[in-house]
Amino acid sequence: MGIGDDAVEIRAQGWRTLAALHGLIETALERALQTEHDLSVVEYTVLDALSRQDGWHMRMRQLARAAALSGSATTRLVTRLEERGLLTRILCADDRRGIYTELTPAGSELLARARPTHDRVLADALAEGGRTPELAPLVDALHRLPAAH
Amino acid sequence: MGIGDDAVEIRAQGWRTLAALHGLIETALERALQTEHDLSVVEYTVLDALSRQDGWHMRMRQLARAAALSGSATTRLVTRLEERGLLTRILCADDRRGIYTELTPAGSELLARARPTHDRVLADALAEGGRTPELAPLVDALHRLPAAH
DNA sequence: GGAGACAGAGTGCGCGTGCAACTACCAGCG
DNA sequence: CGCTGGTAGTTGCACGCGCACTCTGTCTCC
Fold first, then answer.
1. What Rg value do the Cα atoms of chain B yield, rounded?
2. Nearest CA of chain B to the CA of A46: how many Å?
3. pTM for the model
4. How many residue contacts between A and B have a Cβ separation below 8 Å?
5. What residue is closest to D8 (Cα–C1')?
6. Which of A54, A140, B24, B122 is 20 to 30 A from residue A22's alpha carbon, by CA?
7. pLDDT of B56-112, one tens digit each?
8. Distance CA B7, CA A143 (A)
């Protein structure tokens, strides 16, 4: 085995670790958010992304990338949330192809209620990951990540 | 904002980064494996996990955890792969509830053909992640992960 | 100013997934 | 022995997703 093969194996191992930790966290969040606030993880992610824009709008396309979703999925996701009164579509005046989305007060409120659940479950899931030998190094690295303000 | 709130925000940020990188890699792998070998990422993961057992069997339950899948999804995934002749179900003698799965020669062969694609695309996706400012630190950390042999 | 290329958003469709309910099976205990 | 609690795997069902396609609107170039 040459040095190149080692690099390949390290990448594969890293990817498996990443996927495992991702699955662990996502499953935990999914269950908690679903039962306590009737929200899926992507739905929470979208609401959170919108709130992070702080009063500003977001186009569908940006939302799609923020949630790692396809265009079609984003359309339907926004439709669902709109029907629940959590956000509104706003037609863009200068580019009439574009559609902005904005959080409604009800949306902000639900997000505020869900955030503690999200943060608590995330902390728990990371702690559990930290207790799993093959996941612990990655969890550690995650905590040391430079916080981009 | 206290120090506790900072920790919460760092965790949330880390999770978003993790999810973003995961999505980037998974999408790239999905497309490449699908078009070149008619395999989904989970299917590849299962074949890879089985090959990694090197001649030994794996129970459905273990497979489910290895692929971060539910029990029902694992059943159907194994069924699909079995119908394609890539693996076989083996009834367990000592515990008649259990079912072992094993790679067929055709399965090993397909895996061997798909592995170069997988490794190449993974390397590319990581490289692209490394070029994205908010993802770069995590990609870096991934490379420095202790290789558990 | 009209034609073509392109981007943003929506729709039809097939498919894989999780949850809940179910069956088959093992282990312990009265 | 039968009974109970718990585990392994399978099936019915509803739902969200990606892909391919369409539609509308914008930009560019001649």
1. 18
2. 12
3. 0.94
4. 104
5. B97
6. A54
7. 789 999 999 999 999 999 999 999 999 999 999 999 999 999 999 999 999 999 999
8. 9
**CA–CA dist A34, A117 (Å, integer):** 11
Provide the CA B5 to C1' D7 distance, Å, integer.
41
Matching residue, tokens 């905590």: A143
* B144 contact A CB<8A: yes
Candidates B11, B69, B121: best to mutate against A (most CBs of A within 10 A) is B11
How far apart CA B8 and CA A116 sit, in angstroms, is: 10
pLDDT above 70: percentage of residues in chain B: 95
Place of tokens 């990655």: A138
> Helix %, strand %, coil % for chain B, to 5?
70, 10, 25
Mean pLDDT across A34-41: 97
A60 CB inside 7 Å of strand C: yes
User: For chain A, where are the E strands, in sequence order?
Assistant: 58-59, 87-91, 99-103
pLDDT band at B134 (very low <50, low <70, confident <90, very high): very high
- A63 contact B CB<8A: no
The chain-wide mean pLDDT, for chain A, equals 94
Q: HSE, CB side, 13 Å, CA atoms: give it for residue A58.
A: 23
For residues B42 and B53, the answer to whether their CB atoms sit within 8 Å is no
Asked if pLDDT for residue A8 goes beyond 80, the answer is: yes
Among all protein residues, pick the one whose CA is nearest to the C1' atom of C23.
Answer: B97
Proximity of residue A54 CB to strand D below 7 A: no
Pairing of strands A87-91, B99-103: unpaired
Apex CA B98: angle with CA B96 and CA B100, to 5°?
A: 120
